[in-house]
Amino acid sequence: MAKLLSVKDRVLLSLAFLGDVFDEARLLGGLVPLNYEQLYGWVPPQYKRGNFYQAVSVLFKTGDIGRSAENGKAYLVLTNQGRKTVVRKFPMLQFARIKWDEIFTQVVFDIKEIDQKVRDVLRRKLLSLGFGRLQKSVYIIPHNIAQDVAEFIEAHHLENTVKVFRSKLVLGNPQELAERVWKISRLNKKYLRLLEDWERGKGLTGREREKLVRKLKSRLSEIVTTDPFLPKELLPSDWVGGKARKIVESLR
């Protein structure tokens, strides 16, 4: 999912999990950064600063984000409207909190090579919703978002080439399937390293602590864009994602 997210989506997801993003700025009718590295340090390096400026500007205009000041410093914050936008664009975040019914949503398609652009649009949509690739033209997700996909398919007139199913896994281990599709063990290691770095540095104070907190928040904002937020029934027994997110989210 990470490579497919727009700058706006990354800002929204980061704010949804981190609560706020440090934005050392003079509030003179706009964003005037004093320190580029602090402002852009958590933004993926493949994005240009101008793109980030533009994304933030659009999110202000749409009312998805706002500004908050504390101790003379400014912060970007997610508004109530922004929270609704996050839930609408990333439904897997709310489904991950619901007890799993053991049913997968599957999307199977057969789109000709000549329609590569159409196929790529469909794949991007599926990945943005949290689907994982099971086979070349088969994508699955453990959440019931079949209706969301059906609406997209109808809007793009793909009813004849794309099929959506809801079914249980008859043979095999669901956790093993999740590992194969979403590489959960790799993701768990990233969360674990985040926890280890916090444990090693949580005794720091002053500027050193502030530096560590900013670094951890930056890394968490990257990790959550690759997390499919699977139900706990599909996660390994040693899963530390939830713990790592709670700790970093609580840091100021």
Task: Set out the fold topology.
Layout: H1 7-18, E1 20-22, H2 36-40, H3 49-62, E2 65-70, E3 73-78, H4 80-89, H5 92-95, E4 103-109, H6 116-128, E5 132-135, E6 138-141, H7 146-155, E7 162-168, H8 174-182, H9 184-201, H10 206-223, H11 241-250
Antiparallel strand pairs: 1-3, 2-3, 4-6, 4-7, 5-6
What does this molecule look like?
The chain is α+β, with helices and mostly antiparallel strands and 252 residues long. It folds into 3 domains: 2-89, Arc Repressor Mutant, subunit A (Orthogonal Bundle), CATH 1.10.10; 103-168, Alpha-Beta Plaits (2-Layer Sandwich); 184-250. 49% of the residues lie in helices and 15% in strands. The chain is built from 11 helices and 7 strands. The chain has helices at 7-18, 36-40, 49-62, 80-89, 92-95, 116-128, 146-155, 174-182, 184-201, 206-223, 241-250, and strands spanning 20-22, 65-70, 73-78, 103-109, 132-135, 138-141, 162-168. Strand 2 and strand 3 (73-78) form a beta hairpin. The chain starts with 6 loop residues before the first helix and ends with a helix. The model is unreliable at 20-46 (pLDDT under 50).
Instruction: Report, as a whole number of angstroms, the end-to-end distance.
Output: 27 Å
Integer average pLDDT: 79
**Do you know the CATH topology of the largest domain?**
Arc Repressor Mutant, subunit A
Low-confidence stretches: 20-46
Cα shape: globular
Number of helices: 11
Nutshell version of this structure?
By secondary structure, this protein is of the alpha+beta class. It has helices spanning 7-18, 36-40, 49-62, 80-89, 92-95, 116-128, 146-155, 174-182, 184-201, 206-223, 241-250; strands at residues 20-22, 65-70, 73-78, 103-109, 132-135, 138-141, 162-168. The chain has eleven helices and seven strands.
